[in-house]
Amino acid sequence: SMKEGTHLTLSDGREILLQDDEDISLLLRSKHEVIYSHSFTCPSGGYGGGTLLLSPSEQYLIFSFFSGQSEEGFSLFQIEDSRLVPLFESEYFYGEGASYLFSDDEGVLFQSLLGGFGPWYIEDAGQDEEGVPYFQYGEINILDVESQSLSRHKFHVYPSEAWEEEIDGPSAISKITGGDTLHIAMPWGEETLTLPLADITEFRPES
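^ that's the sequence the OP posted. Answer follows.
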């Protein structure tokens, strides 16, 4: 798992801090002195708070932030000796409870933006072209770090007759195996998907 918080310490003793009381800035500190400061401007939609995540190799920093209006976004930075280099900044995506995972070589960043809006009452569900009810259960967003291209992949859940509207619990990628298999923790159990993902993936859980 990745180090997460508003004050991260790197293995060489440098520190990265999020300051967001008034303006938003990310600070790189060495021996208690600020050696670099990055001023951050949030996407329109406002700023409700944020957190920092450190990639396992400590090469990359994720700044994950939310609007307070059920929107989540992130910025990716490369951590260099004396500065933070911005690589990518997303727009706001509709959702709550974002979580992040890198591929083993850290060439790809996955953002899980699943669930988070329960309870899931069938009468509130959408309907597909056949009139069958389904929930828009969120999305997984995949960033190719080198090309800085982001692809978005939506998840639709078709409730069974035994559907529990109070269904809740983890909804995120738990791990990646073999380089191309995503293991996704869902409230009804684990689902596995193989990359590349379709634009829309449909789930039909039994419970």
